[in-house]
């Protein structure tokens, strides 16, 4: 039985989708105005692995992830560029959105994150947002003041149910409220009156939608008024997801999502990684130094709800761990052993699945995998390749579920291959000293050689 931790109830619950065999899943996407940092990658890699596991269990996942392409951060960046003598603001905004959407896909492709079923953009769903706001005003949840529309948190009885906050906690915001003509300091914007581009016509005059209404409109448009999983980073619980709930449920009188899943923070030097603090590693700079499979492994090796501390040391350890798995699989395959998966579930597979069924406990499942790697290495050494191949099949199949793609054998670098050939020639000409120098060179590059009557065989360390 699959159990997932639901932020809404604070408990692990049995996962029961609304429609048998199908899962509707919405993950809050990025605001496209800058490069992705490792905090973003953690969230999207974690939910990608969760999606892959649900698919492995035979569920059909409709995975929707938005792009926020209208936001003050994007507009401010465009203004900066325009002050430097760039083109018109709308053109600059388009350029920024295009550039960083491309950047997002480039990084996620490298990290082997599967494409979502669809990627709605906020600017393509403005009519849907206006419809929701109209209904919210009719039902007494929203109110207009001078072209701005706010959501009245007092009108929604369950406000605070996700983040477990009560409204009285935030009275210090009164001054802000007065400035923005809000009835309550906690009220938030559904529609913002604006005089400058980008803006849209609405029943309340020209303006832009608030950030939270974007996700309400996009999730309901593609997944319906009620769906299974709503996910995002932990920092979105309040106010973003709380406000989404108030808007969507105020609008539809239905529960928006059955399960709310959140990833933990990523820290660097013990501080939360965030763009605003300047304390971050971009995905690109990490991928310049480490193989993508190692970065993906690193992000998955801590449980998705727990905090990850990033350091060179941890990334190095992840790199070594993935090399160990890759070498183990490659050594079995090089003996011509196909890793055919048996139809009967092995005891290892059952143990791995029971870890994953417990709120996607990848670290526990990885522990089982590394025990298997040790066993396979012993069997390979003892030339018991038949038994090694059976265990290796379990390793490979679980790594596939997690989206960990290892370099195939035949992908050995041409440079290394030519060194192996060169040494083989020295050996045939009985030039032992020269052959030995090359053996040492290859060893320093992680390749060990074995001279057999059938010729030289290589394997990765
Ligand atoms: Zn969102």
From TrEMBL:
GO terms for cellular component: cytosol. It is found in: Cytoplasm. Pfam families: CysS_C (PF23493), DALR_2 (PF09190), tRNA-synt_1e (PF01406). A motif ('HIGH' region) lies at residues 30-40. A motif ('KMSKS' region) lies at residues 272-276. Its EC number is 6.1.1.16. GO terms for molecular function: ATP binding; cysteine-tRNA ligase activity; zinc ion binding. InterPro entries: Cys-tRNA-ligase, Cys-tRNA-synt_Ia_DALR, Cys-tRNA/MSH_ligase, CysS_C, Rossmann-like_a/b/a_fold, tRNA-synt_1_cat_dom, tRNAsynth_Ia_anticodon-bd. Gene3D superfamilies: Cysteine-tRNA ligase, C-terminal anti-codon recognition domain (1.20.120.1910), HUPs (3.40.50.620). Belongs to the class-I aminoacyl-tRNA synthetase family. This is Cysteine--tRNA ligase. It comes from candidate division NPL-UPA2 bacterium Unc8.
